[in-house]
């Protein structure tokens, strides 16, 4: 957590397949030393952003830097980034020990002691074929391989989506333990906010190929408020309060607003927002936020 | 040493839950001056939470003068809460038990009581903020 370079920095980044933009106009800085969550519905562009960050895809527009270097630009850069692909793939026909040998051959900074200790802690049989492991064990094996290369940044694409609740928790326990121990930066995607709520301290919300909001979780929670009060139109709220969602029922209006200033209007009951509610608000159809208007202009 | 736990449905931020559990352990005499708090690594690993959340809680406890960090060793309790407050708590605890009895007689279940308590706590917090 000492590094001042960003984990990921993108400017005007976009990726197009034919006519469809899988990711468009993406400008963001994910600072190092954080566990950053990349959230959004399926098909929002999370895997595209991760593939661009790991150098498996080349951008159509814009630039992306990872730890200050171009993704996958050489052996040095490759050694600094650990990557676990979607559904934590392993080689079904190879044993656990084979995977570790492979890792040792392919990675210059391989930490054989760390890999062996992790496998022991997980009580995995080194002779076991990866194809015979449970989903949770396979995920742990894939995580072990990524950690033993001693990366500065670990990128995980939906690592726990297919795991049962116990395996999910065990995976996140290991991940958080290692993050604290090795001062590792982490970027992990999920379509479920609940999976990230306790582990992420930085959040990027992707919706329909675009970044809707990003920032430190504490700042996001401190600047969003749920307001309930007598019915009024969204346009009548002060300019300092950006309306994210609004709903009206009878004489009452409810707004989710973003405002860096405290809410002082006594007509409102202001409540804190949970991270899940905040993300869902940005994922849902919004009314008249500047971002949405800009989108419509684009189309 | 204490074990932390988190209630994900309480709506209270995790770092605040950690702070409260330390304060509570101090008040109950479960933690005393010189006791070590679990390491950031262990708390993050066992609760599967971001290490920065634990650091934030510990820093806040340091700011309150309840704990101090020894670099490379860990975080230690620096204050034993006086017995007087424990006595005061016993009285509060007895008053609360009596209140729960009255609430049950009035036909409230625990959920109703929790709602009442939270509303009163929120009102008190708002008064404090004004």
How would you explain this protein's 3D organization?
The complex is a heterodimer of chains A (299) and B (130). Chain A is α/β, with parallel strands linked by helices and 299 residues long. Chain A folds into two domains: 6-208, Rossmann fold, CATH 3.40.50.300; 220-298, no CATH class. Chain A is built from ten helices and 13 strands. In chain A, the strands form three sheets. In chain A, strands 5-6-7-3-8-9 form a six-stranded mixed β-sheet, with helices on both faces. In chain A, strands 11-12-10-13 form a four-stranded antiparallel β-sheet. In chain A, strand 11 and strand 12 (252-258) form a beta hairpin. In chain A, 41% of the residues are buried. Chain B is built from five helices and two strands, in the order αααββαα. Chain B has 130 residues and is mostly helical. The termini of chain B are far apart. Chain B has two domains: 14-77, Winged helix-like DNA-binding domain superfamily/Winged helix DNA-binding domain (Arc Repressor Mutant, subunit A), CATH 1.10.10.10; 83-129. The longest helix of chain B is centred in the C-terminal third of the chain and has 23 residues, at 83-105. Helices cover 60% and strands 6% of the residues of chain B. In chain B, a hairpin with a 3-residue loop joins strand 1 (67-70) and strand 2. Chains A and B meet through helix 6 of A and helix 2 and helix 3 of B.
């Amino acid at each position: 957590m000492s590094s001042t370079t960003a984990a990921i920095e993108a400017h005007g980044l976009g990726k197009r397949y034919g006519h469809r933009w899988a990711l468009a106009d993406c400008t963001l800085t994910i600072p190092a030393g954080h566990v950053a969550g990349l959230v959004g519905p399926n098909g929002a562009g999370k895997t595209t952003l991760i593939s661009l960050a790991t150098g498996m895809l080349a951008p159509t527009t814009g630039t992306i830097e990872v730890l200050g270097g171009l993704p996958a630009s050489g052996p040095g850069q490759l050694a600094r980034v650990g990557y676990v692909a979607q559904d934590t793939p392993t080689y079904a026909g190879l044993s656990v020990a084979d995977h570790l040998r492979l890792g040792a051959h392919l990675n210059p900074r391989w930490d054989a002691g760390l890999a062996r200790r992790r496998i022991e802690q997980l009580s995995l049989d080194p002779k076991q074929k990866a194809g015979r492991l449970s989903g949770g064990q396979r995920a742990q094996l894939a995580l072990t391989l990524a950690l033993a290369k001693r990366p500065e940044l670990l990128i995980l694409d939906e690592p726990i989506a297919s795991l049962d609740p116990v395996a999910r928790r065990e995976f996140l326990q290991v991940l958080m333990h290692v993050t604290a121990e090795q001062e590792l930066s982490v970027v992990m995607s999920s379509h479920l906010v609940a999976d990230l709520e306790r582990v992420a301290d930085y959040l990027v919300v992707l919706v329909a190929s675009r970044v809707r909001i990003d920032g430190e979780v504490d700042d996001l929670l401190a600047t969003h408020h749920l307001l309930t009060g007598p019915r009024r139109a969204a346009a009548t709220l002060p300019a300092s309060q950006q309306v994210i969602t609004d709903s009206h029922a009878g004489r009452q209006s409810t707004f989710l607003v973003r405002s860096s200033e405290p809410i002082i209007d006594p007509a409102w009951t202001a409540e804190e927002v949970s991270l899940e509610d905040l993300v869902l608000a940005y994922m849902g159809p919004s009314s008249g936020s500047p971002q949405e208007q800009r989108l419509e202009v684009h189309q | 040493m204490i074990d932390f736990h988190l209630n994900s449905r309480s709506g209270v931020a995790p770092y605040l839950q950690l702070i409260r559990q330390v304060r509570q352990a101090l008040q109950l005499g479960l933690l005393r001056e010189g006791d070590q708090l679990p390491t950031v690594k262990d708390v993050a690993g066992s609760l599967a939470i971001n290490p920065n959340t634990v650091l934030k809680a510990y820093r806040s406890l340091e700011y309150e003068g309840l704990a101090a960090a020894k670099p490379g060793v860990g975080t230690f309790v620096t204050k034993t809460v006086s017995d007087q407050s424990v006595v005061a708590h016993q009285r509060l605890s007895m008053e609360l038990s009596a209140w729960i009895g009255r609430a049950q007689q009035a036909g409230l279940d625990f959920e109703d009581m929790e709602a009442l308590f939270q509303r009163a706590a929120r009102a008190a917090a708002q008064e404090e903020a004004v």
